[in-house]
């Protein structure tokens, strides 16, 4: 990539759980993946096997740990609670049909950033912990060195990936970030005038048009 600081961050969304199939809200509830669904990750597994990662980070919830174990990345991982999905509080385990007539839920659907989840996590809290994680992660990888290229894998949840991608790609909103269970997105960050900016964004393993 030439001179300068670059980070290739591979965001992987965990494989599917029973609650995902049933379209239930699942945040901090620790559900296991459906083992029979893991074979759908074979193409991703083969692709990631060709990449030498410098660091691997993961949510501490078992659906992420089990997905990471299946991918067999030959590197010790760091589990971090800050990579958890948003805490859905009173809505954990509930479906849209069960919640659609509740005013607090309708307000949240209309504007999730300004309307907190009852007994759950606000958008401000959610964003702040993820921002802290990524800031520390970048500092650990780059430090004060110049001309560093690093590849990082982050195993996490849909909401976390949507937030981080939309934070760096101004043309994409939070809800426009599309990533299915067991899929990955590569975000390349370049340091320019002291700021980290998106250099490219692509799907993994299928390379689509970069943003």
Automatic annotation (TrEMBL):
This protein's name: Histidine phosphatase family protein
Species: Virgibacillus sediminis
Lineage: Bacteria, Bacillati, Bacillota, Bacilli, Bacillales
PANTHER family assigned to the protein according to its UniProt record, in alphabetical order: FRUCTOSE-2,6-BISPHOSPHATASE TIGAR (PTHR46517)
Pfam families: His_Phos_1 (PF00300)
Key words, A-Z: Hydrolase
Top-level taxon: Bacteria
Gene3D superfamilies: Phosphoglycerate mutase-like (3.40.50.1240)
Matching InterPro entries: His_Pase_superF_clade-1, His_PPase_superfam, Phosphoglycerate_Mutase
Listed SUPFAM superfamilies: Phosphoglycerate mutase-like (SSF53254)
């Amino acid at each position: 990539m030439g001179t300068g600081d670059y980070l290739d961050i591979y965001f992987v969304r965990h494989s599917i759980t029973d609650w995902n199939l049933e379209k239930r809200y699942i945040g901090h509830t620790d559900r296991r993946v459906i083992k029979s669904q893991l074979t759908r990750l074979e193409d991703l597994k083969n692709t990631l096997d060709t990449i030498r990662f410098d660091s691997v980070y993961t949510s501490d919830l078992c659906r992420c740990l089990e997905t990471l174990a299946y991918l067999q990345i030959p590197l010790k991982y760091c589990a971090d609670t800050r990579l958890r999905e948003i805490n859905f509080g009173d809505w954990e385990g509930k479906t849209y049909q069960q919640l659609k007539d509740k005013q607090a839920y309708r307000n949240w659907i209309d504007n999730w950033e300004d309307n907190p989840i009852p007994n759950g996590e606000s958008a401000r809290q959610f964003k702040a912990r993820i921002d802290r994680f990524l800031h520390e992660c970048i500092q650990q990888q780059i430090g004060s060195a110049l001309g560093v290229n690093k590849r990082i894998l982050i195993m996490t949840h849909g909401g976390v990936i949507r937030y981080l991608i939309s934070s760096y790609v101004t043309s994409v909103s939070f809800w426009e970030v599309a990533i299915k269970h067991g899929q990955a997105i590569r975000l390349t960050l370049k340091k320019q005038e002291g700021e980290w900016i998106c250099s490219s964004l692509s799907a993994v393993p299928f390379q689509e048009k970069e943003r």
